[in-house]
Structure formats: structure tokens, C-alpha cells
Write a structure and sequence with these properties.
Layout (H helix, E strand, L loop, with lengths): L21 E2 L3 H8 L4 H26 L18 E5 L9 E5 L8 H21 L11 E5 L8 E3 L4 E3 L14 H14 L8 H23 L9 E2 L14 E2 L8 E2 L3 E2 L15 H4 L5 H14 L6 H11 L9 H16 L3 H12 L6
Parallel strand pairs: 2-4, 4-6
Antiparallel strand pairs: 1-5, 2-3, 5-6, 7-8, 9-10
Helix pairs in contact: 1-2, 3-4, 4-5, 5-7, 7-8, 7-10, 8-9, 9-10
Length: 366
Amino acid sequence: MSVTECNGSDMTRNGGFEPVFCTIIPPHVLDRLAQSDDPARSGRARRTIQRDAYERTQRHLTTVAGAPAVALLADAEPGKPHRTVYDARNGTDLPGTKVRGEGDDPGQDATVNRAYAGLGATFELLLKAYARDSIDGHGLPLDATVHYDEEYNNAFWNGEQMVFGDGDGEIFLDFTNAIDVIGHELAHGVTQYTANLTYYGQPGALNESVSDVIGALIKQYTLGQTADEADWLIGAELLAPDVTGKALRSMKAPGTAYDDDVLGKDPQPATMDDYVRTGRDNGGVHINSGIPNHAFYLAATTLGGHAWERAGQVWYDVLTGGDLQQDAHFTDFATLTLKAARARYGDGDELQAVTKAWERVGVRTL
């Protein structure tokens, strides 16, 4: 039994929607947990996989039926977030009961407050760093549901909203704990409205990598960190104390995020020398994303300062510039980053840093 993280190819260039369903936990992790000798552990993983499959199917049926995308609010103020957090109360009906709206004071549920803050942090980075009004660029409301299902070991973006499980407490903790995870999933929404990267092979790995980059930038922006101060870990707050690992992924050192008897070893490569050719995980989208992830880390740390400024701006320009094709490979993306760096900054440090970063991970440019 396996699970695919994203279904469909995001948003078509003519504005039509394909089914979208994106989760944060890679399928190889859930598959391994589902094969555990511990009946309770394997049962939780299988239930998560089954729930993901159901939600993916529902998303597909809803989209095929022609349901509209999230509607803009008539009274929404441009440049201001409009967040709503719902509580599923450990059920599976979406969106659930509204528990906090935009401007409401924090309540006693820390999970609700973290979800609200994470939506706000994502909105703020996109607006202040890149002049983007919400994930669609036009003030899209940001909705999230917390306390989804029982011991649900995942969080997902379903094309319209965020959904967070509480984790099982043994392997994964509350999925609102990690602000970069919130940012990662919402970034799939940005891709949904822009580049339309096909979710298979290298285009799919780029899709995943872009989400990791934006998630990392949101975390660093919120903490006020420079590139040198950041840990460059994705999901560092998700692993339970007994798990041998630091996070789900490391952009600084792909392949070192975890090495655990239950989860296995982090399979991500850092360079093309170790590129993984597989038909699983949609052609290794969660695995080979380590290569462009590492390239971004190298470019950002070479430039120094705040990563969302120069390196982040180059990546954002490529994602939203209109030249990135849905079937783009690493070489195509890398070439566009050089073009974007030169267009924005000339032939200075930015272009040199980006060029050398791709060289170091073994991705050629045209």
C-alpha cells in the first residue's frame, strides 16, 4: 500500500484546475510505518494512508464536478490576510466548526493559535518580501482545519485549505508545531496558481523543493534569522522525542535528517551523483528534491544576509515569471535562476553564487 503526496498537476495555464492534494509526510515514510511489526503503529499508518487516499479521491471528484475555487470575499481589504481556523474535533468532516476568525483574540487551544499564526506568517512573507497578496496574488482567504481525525499522522493542502492532524505522539507530534510545514503546504498553493509543475520525476521534485524553500524562508523570516543562523531543517518540531533524527529533511545536508529503527534512513541525495531513479513516490519527488534544496542552501549561504532577499527573490522570480514550464527538469530550472539573477542583479555576486551552487550539486545549465 502506498500513498501519493500530490495528485494532479496543479493549475492549468488556461486557469482551469486539476485535482490537487498535497501532504507533508513522504509516502516512503508512511509505507515503512505501515509495515511495522507493532500492530498499533502499523495500524495508525495504514489509517493515515487510507484517509489520504479518501481525501485525494474526494478532491478529484469535487474538481471534476466543477466546484469553484475558494471564493474571494467581497469586503476583503487588499494586502490584509483573511484567516479562518476550524476544528474538526477529531472527525473528518471539512472544514469543521469555526473557532477563530481574522482579528479574533487567541484562545486557549494552542493548536488553533499556531495554525492562525502560521497562516499569517506565510501571508506576511509573501506580501512584504515579494509583494504577493496571499497565495494566489489576489487576496485569497486562508483557511485551516485542526484536530483532524484521530492520531492522524499528516497535514495536507487540498487545493482549497490546510488540514492538520494531531500526530500519534509516538512518531509525530502536532503538525501545527512546525511553521515551515505550514509554509511548505501553502507554497503548494502558490505553485498551484503559478508554475503548474507536473508532479512526477524532476518537475515533481522541483515542486517539492520550491515548497521546502518557501517553508524554510517563512521560518527564517519569523525568527529573524540570517542564512548563516538558520538550521535549514524542514519539520524539526514534528519528530517525537524517541525518534532518532532532527527533522523530515535537511537542506544543508540532505540524507542526514533522520536515521531511525522505525522510520529508516533519510534517502535524500545532495548532488546528481546520487540521483535516485525510482518509479515509487511519483518518481522520487520527495527524495530527489534534496538536490535543488541543497543548491538553494548553497546560494543563500554564499550570499549571506537574509535568504528571502536575494536568493529567495531569484527563486520566486522563476516560479512566478511565466517561463517555467510544467515539465521543467533541474537543468531548466537552474538555467532560469541564472537568467533571473542576471535580470535583477546583473553579473554580480548573486549570479556567481547561483551559478556555483548548481555546479556544486552537479546540475548543468544551458
